[in-house]
């Protein structure tokens, strides 16, 4: 029975991690809105030429997104989540 209980706890942890990743991505898109707009403006009306015509904008957007979507950011969000959970459990 210990194995089943552990599997359930890991499943919950996976769900929490997925939610935190989603939240992280939403924040990144919000924070990088300027670069998203620049890229969208460049891409407007283009098809294959986006690859070389919008390379600079794509690089700027990716660099911005990476600031908000990396492992260290996710680990920090996990720590904050665990602290919140501990706070709820002790009250």
What does this molecule look like?
- By secondary structure, the chain is mainly α.
- The chain has one domain (3-88).
- It contains five helices and no strands.
- Helix 1 (2-31) packs across helix 4 (55-68).
- The longest helix is centred in the N-terminal third of the chain and has 30 residues, at 2-31.
- The protein is elongated, with a radius of gyration of 19 Å.
- The two termini are 30 Å apart.
Concise structural overview:
This protein is mainly α and 91 residues long. It has helices at 2-31, 33-43, 50-53, 55-68, 71-90.
List the keywords.
single chain; mainly alpha; elongated; Cyt_c_biogenesis_Cmc1-like; COX assembly mitochondrial protein; mitochondrion
Uncertain segments are none
Largest sheet: none
Shape: elongated
Number of alpha- plus pi-helical segments: 5
* String of helices and strands: HHHHH
Number of domains: 1
Rg, rounded, reads 19 Å
> Pairing-aware structural class of the strands and helices?
mainly alpha
User: Could you tell me the strand content as a percent range?
Assistant: under 5%
Average predicted local confidence, pLDDT? 88
Strand element count: 0
Percent of residues in helices comes to over 70%
- Straight-line distance between termini: 30 Å
InterPro entries: Cyt_c_biogenesis_Cmc1-like
Protein name: COX assembly mitochondrial protein
Keywords: Disulfide bond, Mitochondrion
Subcellular location: Mitochondrion
